[in-house]
Amino acid sequence: MKALWAAAFIACAGMASAQQVSNAPGATIRGLDKVTGALVDMTLSTGEAKMVGRLQVSLGQCRYPTDNPAGNAYAWLEIYDAVERQMVFSGWMVASAPALNPLDHPRYDVWVLRCSTE
Predict the structure, then answer these.
(1) Which uninterrupted H or E stretch holds 4?
(2) Which residue, 5, 23, 37, 93, is most buried by CB atoms nearer than 10 A?
(3) Strand, helix or coil at 2?
């Protein structure tokens, strides 16, 4: 798995060197409660945190190709489980490949959909 993540990071770094990458002021994140099937979409500003069930999702950054704002966004997320009182995820999630570095939680899934450009 670490080798796969390293390959993805190199691919993203390659994307950054091949084209201009912009920092977005925020991102749209989707959360899924796997028990109830409830989906929630939320827009987070950089530095903002919101709850998905018992998970606190914080957005560090969101980056996207300058020439394609709806394209391959990737976001730095930190996800804290309020019940377990521990960090359950900290890292980059890629919108076009959410399974590349997923949140591993028994009840919730969280992934990035796109960067907010406004």
Answers:
(1) helix 2-18
(2) 93
(3) helix
How far apart are the C-alpha atoms of 72 and 112, rounded to whole Å?
10
More confident residue, 5 or 86: 86
Q: Partners of 112 in the beta sheet? A: 29
Average pLDDT over the chain reads 86
> What does the pLDDT average to over 75-100?
95
Write a three-state SS string for 55-88: EEEEEEEEEEECCCCCCCCEEEEEEEECCCCEEE
CA distance 22 to 16: 9
Amino acid 54: pLDDT:
95
> Rounded distance, CA 63 to CA 30, Å?
17
Q: What 3-state class would DSSP assign to 112?
A: strand
